[in-house]
User: What shape does this take?
Amino acid sequence: MNWRSLFRPAARLLPSRWLITRGPSDRSAIALTFDDGPLDSTPGCLDVLDELGLRATFFVVGKEVQAHPDLCLEMVGRGHEVAGHGFTHSYFPALEYRALADELARTAELLPPQPFRPLVRPPAGAISPTSLWNTMRSGYTTVLWSLDCFDWRTQDASEIATELEQARAGDILLLHEGSAPTLEALRVAKAAWQRRGLDCVTLSDLCGL
Ligand SMILES: [Zn+2]
Assistant: This one.
């Protein structure tokens, strides 16, 4: 066991101002989070979410926001939440403080204003003690997840749906934009969540930010 495998569980004990990995379980709600957009396929994703009555949080890449300037406003306009995922999708632990602060600031300039302390999800969820500290120092709360739905490694909608259906109250679900099987899986999972009385809300709503 190396320090990295010890650090990740230890980091979960940090105050939520530093790091959020899941929400409170005393309310029947979960948070869907989509990484890596906005993309040309984003409007279709927003249509499916509208149709299913689901709210989500989008962790967007700054350079993709530049390439698709109107889509973040559309996300917010449709009741979703938007936060940063780095400007160039770089590995945060490899960045010096100034480079990391620059990634965060360049992305924030392109996003709709956030009413609370800004959130960021590091690409691939990669954190180190130094990158976590530098992110906090820059005024951001790092957000990871409690349930990986593995849509980055499979194109099988039923496999993704099986993961989605495991969600329990308070879970933060990791999903990715641009995956058609993910949207198909959400239709199946939505019915299962509805039977269990689970609502999908934004991450800020789930965590009471
Ligand atoms: Zn990513």
Strands lie at 19-20, 29-35, 56-60, 81-84, 119-120, 141-143, 147-148, 172-176, 199-201. The mean pLDDT is 94.
